[in-house]
Amino acid sequence: MSLSAIVGRASRAWRAVVWYAQSVLGEHDYDAYVAHLRRHHPDQPVPTVREYWRERYARESREPAARCC
Known about the structure:
Layout: H1 3-25, H2 27-40, H3 49-62
């Protein structure tokens, strides 16, 4: 196996690990929310990442329906 093939496989593996970690941490949720806002509510302002997470955690505290505890 050539060096470029090894580097290519390692690069793909690293991207997969990063994608998985971002998915578990919910990083893709903000991107999906922004896409939804732009598609269905183009007149509304898009919150910053910080504002999005602050509101999301506040909503989860107010409405704990999906939590187990």
